[in-house]
Design brief:
The protein is an alpha/beta fold and 272 residues long. It has a single domain (3-271), classed as Rossmann fold (3-Layer(aba) Sandwich), CATH 3.40.50.300. The protein is built from 10 helices and 8 strands. Strands 3-4-2-5-1-6-7-8 form an 8-stranded mixed β-sheet, sandwiched between helices. α1 crosses α2 (44-57). The longest helix has 28 residues, at 244-271. Residues 3-186 form the AAA domain. It comes from Paucilactobacillus suebicus DSM 5007 = KCTC 3549. Pfam families: AAA_31 (PF13614).
Length: 272
């Protein structure tokens, strides 16, 4: 059964997009059929994967229509891009900024607007083991569309106060939309990122997050600051076994994916 996951936080610049892409990339490398959906008009996830295709994989991105055109037509298939084995993407483009306007002009109530994307995704998601969605760091129809469509949420927490505040607000909204729409939506966990070893502020933020979210909701794996992740934004995602920095990054995300799968199993076992 397909698992659909949103990475989120109401604070920008916390590594949300990077982690969405790296999780999707890692799942695909492990042989899982994966779809990455870029529901952010800023298109950072799209830029990273297109750069990877061109610079690393030597493949030119091709698609029949933009995601916005596909959304308005009611068929997502023409917007799909083959990134690599086991990984497809629904890429963002500049016209995606018109999606909210389309929803407001087409549907009269919030639920119809927020559930429209979910209905379109349902037509194709059975083709995948995982669907990973990246959304803007704001409360808007992109975020709500993704939440209605997903099974699980990973909150990406950079160890700084504004990120913690954004994570708390995101959680409150998550619980509210779950209640309003009666969604089978779960917080998979809070993933701490961009930590510096032994930094006092990092430790303070982690302590506050632990108090607020509770230990069971905190990922055990933590993503340290790694220059290689920043470099990927310029070069695309490299994955050379001969380069230690590449090996370290991909080893860490293999652990992230392992914990994701373990956490999902806990939820699924509880439903049986």
């Amino acid at each position: 059964m397909t698992k659909t996951i949103v990475t989120g936080n109401f604070k920008g610049g916390v590594g949300k997009t990077t982690n969405a892409v790296m999780i999707a990339y890692t799942l695909a490398k492990q042989g899982k059929k994966t779809l990455l959906v870029d529901l952010d008009p800023q298109a950072n996830a799209t830029d990273l994967l297109f750069l990877t295709m061109k610079n690393v994989l030597g493949v030119k991105p091709t698609f029949q229509s933009t995601l916005e055109v596909a959304l308005e037509s009611g068929d997502l298939k023409p917007a799909l891009v083959d990134v690599m084995d086991n990984l497809q993407m629904l890429p963002s483009y500049e016209d995606l900024q018109d999606y909210e306007k389309y929803l407001f002009s087409t549907f009269d109530d919030d639920y119809s607007q927020d559930s429209y994307f979910s209905k379109l995704l349902a037509k194709i998601k059975d083709n995948y083991d995982y669907v990973i969605l990246d959304v803007p760091p704001q409360l808007n129809k992109y975020t709500d569309s993704a939440l209605v469509a997903c099974d699980y949420v990973i909150i990406v927490l950079q160890t700084q106060q504004r990120s913690l505040s954004g994570a708390k607000t995101y959680t409150e909204h998550l619980l509210q939309i779950k209640e309003d729409y009666k969604l089978n939506l779960e917080l998979l966990g809070v993933l701490p990122v961009l930590l510096q070893n032994g930094n006092e502020l990092d430790l303070d933020i982690l302590s506050d997050a632990l108090d607020f979210f509770g230990k069971p909701n905190m990922f055990e794996i933590q993503i340290k600051q790694m220059a290689r992740l920043k470099r990927f934004d310029r070069t695309g995602i490299t994955n050379s076994h001969r380069v230690i920095h590449d090996r370290r990054v991909h080893a860490i995300y293999a652990e992230v994916v392992k914990e994701i799968e373990t956490r999902i199993k806990v939820f699924e076992d509880a439903k049986e």
